[in-house]
Request: fold
Amino acid sequence: MGKNIIIIGTQWGDEGKGKIIDLLSPNVNYIVRYQGGHNAGHTLVVNNKKTVLHLLPSGLLHNHIFGVIGNGVVISPRDLLNEIRMLQKQGIYNLQNRIMISESSPLLLEYHVAMDQAREKRLHSVDDNNSNGNTTIIGTTGRGIGPVYEDKVARRGLRIGDLKNIQLFSVNLRKNVNYYNFLLSNYYHSKVVNYDVIIKDILSVRDDLLNMIQDIPNTLDIAMKNDKKIMFEGAQGTFLDIDHGTYPYVTSSNSISGGVCSGVGVGPLAIDYILGVTKCYTTRVGFGPFPTELFDEIDLHFFNIGKELGSSTGRRRRTGWLDIVALRRCIQINSLSALCMTKLDVLDGLKEIKICIAYKLSNGTQITCTPFSVDEWNNLSPVYKILPGWLGSTVGVRSFNLLPLEAKNYILEIESMVGIPIDMISTGPERNDIIILNNPCL
Ligand code: GDP
Ligand code: IMO
Ligand code: MG
Reply:
């Protein structure tokens, strides 16, 4: 049997998942997205050429890969088709026969975007007036992701497969447009959407979408029986998970490894190995707790050297030191087999490197588990272990033995703190800037 693996982010997203999925692709057959939508931004750099994927699985630059979008992923038809066109323009081979989507995937439509943006805008203005300390500005990507998942759980959502019966689809779409327009105009005092525009738009892409639908559980079951290898691609990160993240400052799906089963339709026994991709420091986009956040010259170092601008929205990422307390929780709830540490090169030249090993509460007590309420998350301060930095360059290094001694010790120290192996170390944005100590796909 093939070995099926999950790749997830262990922090607040943007750990470098896309790069790792792309580089491991030669030894797998299917790459499967299971949650999120085009809020994700996964960057691949091959021969200096950068490609950012949002909805499409990160292995599609390889000609043999089948890219699957599972039922847990919310699909904006326009954004999906634009992304496919972008890759076709790059000359990527035979895409139309290599992309499969679940007919149960929720459709993300214009009213979801309008609602996401109206809500964040209203919260901004309410917050500005200081009239309600209880409001929550999330700092979403503004792409409509949350409202689509709300529709799904409320059982009023439209799915790709609903396009098969256009009469029924039109009736349900009209109901949803009326519902959203009522909210948009009466509650949010915001611009409404137009049913005619939405239906015309969706009809113009209906065939393209229906041509890509497949019975995904069946396809993957047959693939597994034929000894094909499947890699499940996480979007966002563990602490953006709707249940296990820093709620409410999270995304609206289960980004943890457990999300694979419900988001695709495979059972837990199909999974053989789970890799957690971890940046050697931490970043976060949008609002929410961040115990190790920095506001000093080290933040500027991470921002400038790590080029920490969001791949989806271009927002500046907040930065901080690596957080082992959070990482241990992540290993626990995801059953991680191993870690892949990324962006080691960004630490080059730092005099000292801090690792958060515990949190201190306001009463002075130290804890070594992440809390559950946002209030507690917000009232923690990090306790650091300080390691020496290194002067040499690690950029593009491909062998562990060629790393500076202090860099080797840094990696070994993390390994001993978390109790699982570090199987890979990324040393630059390029596909081949990688140290592979154990290739999970072989
Ligand atoms: P993802 O969302 O987890 O796929 O990560 P993003 O693509 O949003 O952000 C990761 C950024 O770091 C991208 O710009 C990558 O090109 C870059 N990157 C990935 N690995 C490395 C690395 O080891 N070193 C450096 N310097 N950049 C990296
Ligand atoms: P990748 O897959 C980093 C963040 C947003 C916001 C919160 C909720 O590239 O790692 P949403 O639009 O999902 O409702 O926003 O989640 N967020 C991400 N941050 N990387 C991502 O994806 C993200 N996707 C969503 O910034 O704080
Ligand atoms: Mg990203």
In short: The pocket of 6-O-phosphoryl inosine monophosphate (ligand 2) is lined by residues 9, 13-14, 39-42, 138-141, 143, 145-146, 235-237, 240, 251-252, 285-286, 311 (CB under 6 Å). The longest helix spans residues 166-187. Residues 110-210 form a domain with the Adenylosuccinate Synthetase, subunit A; domain 2 fold (CATH 1.10.300.10). Confidence is low (pLDDT under 50) at residues 128-134.
